[in-house]
Design brief:
Helices cover about 40% and strands about 25% of the residues. The chain has about 300 residues and is of the alpha/beta class. The radius of gyration is 32 Å and the shape is rod-shaped. Keywords: DNA-binding, Transcription, Transcription regulation.
Length: about 300
């Protein structure tokens, strides 16, 4: 029998006044309980109890050992209960790393509602423009472009991969709108910066193929929000996710260009996912937050 159970049996024996009763409280037979205590005594090279046919009494060593381990075992039991509660009830600190542009528009606005529903959860949110992040080193949830490779992670889709090529109505009024992908080359384009590589926009062709257009213009940035604002200010064409500019298009602040032709920046076609480590029992704080984001993404759900 493991030593931890034997120490619990020692305390129960003092509490219940007998080995048989202590054993029953732990699901052990009288024989198994008596053997466990003798093995503990052998391991410690101490006599913990004075035994007679009618009575069991702790020795001084047994009493001192019980006094020392009682608060330790109580603390261990409390810690185990708290650990179970973190899985069964949303509580504790939820550490999230999220794509900055998406988080500012579709995560941060929903934090207050989540906290009202789950007041025992504290949120530690880090924003980044990096790609390829995965839950690790104390991070519970990553909100990122696409799913990471392998089977170690689970993902929940938060937004589509649809991109919208658009410009401000003022820009279109002054410069016109391109009628073909080739005509895009004659317009200033606001592009996402990827190291030193030239930005490329990919257009789906009516025949099912693809046409790549190497674009350029007055602004390159690693911030989608910066590109969106520049487009609103009339600096040129921009190709951004629907989740970022869909409301602007609906409100008339931005005008779609080549709306019938799907387009996307090279290597940035992926959907947005909330990703966590794959586990048999997902902690309640993670499950609750993912459910909250999914409900916000689809209010009818």
């Amino acid at each position: 029998m493991d030593r931890l159970t034997a120490l619990r049996l020692l305390l129960r024996t003092l509490d219940r006044g007998g080995i048989a009763a202590a054993g029953r409280s732990l699901g052990l037979s009288a024989t198994a309980a008596s053997r466990a205590l003798r093995e503990l005594e052998d391991d410690l090279a101490l006599r913990l109890f004075d035994r007679t046919t009618r009575h069991v009494a702790p020795t001084e060593a047994g009493r001192r050992l019980a006094d020392r381990i009682a608060p330790l075992l109580e603390g261990l039991d409390t810690a185990m209960v708290e650990a179970r509660e973190l899985h069964e009830e949303a509580a504790g600190t939820l550490r999230i790393v999220a794509r900055r542009s998406f988080a500012l528009r579709h995560v941060v606005p929903h934090l207050a509602g989540f906290r009202r529903a789950h007041p025992r959860v504290e949120i530690d949110l880090a924003l980044t423009e990096q790609t390829g992040l995965v839950p690790a080193h104390g991070v519970d949830l990553v909100i990122r472009l696409g799913l990471p490779p392998g089977k170690s992670y689970s993902g929940h889709r938060l937004a589509s991969d649809r991109r919208i090529l658009c410009a401000s109505p003022d820009y279109v009024a002054r410069h016109g709108a391109p009628a073909t992908p080739d005509a895009v080359l004659r317009h200033p384009c606001l592009t996402y910066r990827e190291a030193d590589e030239a930005p490329v926009w990919v257009f789906a062709t009516p025949s099912g193929g693809r046409q790549e257009v190497a674009v350029g213009g007055p602004l390159r940035s690693n911030s989608g929000e910066a590109l969106r604002q520049a487009a609103l200010d009339g600096m040129g064409l921009v190709l951004l996710p629907e989740w970022m500019v869909g409301e602007d298009v609906a409100a008339g602040r931005l005008a779609p260009v080549l709306p019938g032709l799907p387009a996307w920046p090279e290597r940035y076609r992926a959907e947005i996912f909330a990703v966590h480590a794959r586990t048999e029992r997902l902690p309640a704080k993670i499950a609750a937050f993912v459910a909250h984001l999914l409900a916000a993404a689809d209010p009818a759900a």
